[in-house]
Amino acid sequence: MKELVFDHSYAVPFVRPGELELLEPQAAAAHRQLHDKTGAGSSFLGWLDLPERYDRAELARLKEAAQRIQDQCEALIVIGIGGSYLGARAAISALSHSFSDLLSRDARRAPQVFFAGHAISDKYLHDLIELVAEKDLALNVISKSGTTTEQAIAFRILRELMEKKYGAEGARERIYVTTDASKGALRKMVQSEGYTSFVIPDDVGGRYSVLTPVGLLPMAAAGIDVDALLEGAAAACSWFGRPELKDNGAYQYAALRSIFQRKGKNIEILVNYEPSLFYFSEWWKQLFGESEGKDQKGIFPASVNFTTDLHSMGQFMQDGARSIFATTVWVDRSPVEVVVPHDPKDEDGCEYLAGKSLSCINAKAFQGTVLAHTDGGVPNLVVNVPELNPFYFGALIYFFEKACAMSGYLQGVNPFDQPGVELYKRNMYALLGRPGFEEERKALEQRLK
Ligand code: PA5
Q: Do 420 and 293 contact (CB within 8 A), yes or no?
């Protein structure tokens, strides 16, 4: 079994010999804090060994629910925001046909999957409702707190649609809720309405929850092999559970981020060369942004999609302000091959590429870009994924979760809280006139005049 390999050989010109090793004691201390659960945020470390100890009976119940969703509907709407939707969206777009929602139901062998509750937009929800109006539907509403406004509004609107379409009883059979075991409005609704429900463990925070029912139910409903995905994550628990920095690629990645940041590189750009990884980068941005961006510290996580963005952001990366480093998620093997055909007329000047697959050309674009960036003063790190299948996708998720926890501890922040997210919510509640926020409302309205 090939491991997921972290490769920092291209970054050698930016790291003095022995510089990485200097961080061995800090990494060893952070490893102990994580595994002994003695560090900041230690009550949110349930994700650390979850793939290895996943409750098999609960997984079987989840797969039964996914099968029921597949039998019940043509379109599944997943309602959630942040950590309650990005992981599932990343997995479904990475592991499904690139045009999955446009395929026939027979070719897709699973419902179409749409997302809602991740924005506040009349247009988006109106257009989604128009699109699915005539289809058989199911909803999976996901929220750890059970009180998030974006999710709650979308659920209220879509629940009304479901009840009009199927009646209260019919709707109940098509609504699946993933939330806290006992707290929050969604849990109360499960108790009063009798919806099928799944639990987000107490000790797993939103952005670390993709390998719980939060991610697994929509993935399974979309036809993804969640057993293989959990196996890959479990393998990664052991690969990236090694205590020593020299043996642990996730820790080396975290340590090198810290080295680059101390050298003034405070923007990290996650790069992919595969369009289906677009949402993986969105998931990664939330993971690192919310985990590390606090106490006036952190590396700003950005992303680009190559080679597409080489024709837009490539100029900046090569030649702009030198405050960036790049990390590429490189997939070694494509599941299919498309080859450039021969054309003896060669009017397009591409005959030298005839007979080559697009993966082979993409690999040269990647190598050429990394070398150009290196010459331009941009350190490049690489995470090598043998192939984009459920096993390695699970491993990739775990690699970054583990690296993010280590990176937060090396930065001296609690990677498991998000105090900064609350302020906008309080202001929004006050401005919308939520009971209990009257004083704040007056003060804010003064400032808006
Ligand atoms: O990582 C986090 O905790 C957050 O980004 C949450 O995932 C996001 O705010 C959604 O919260 P909830 O699942 O409570 O609706």
A: yes
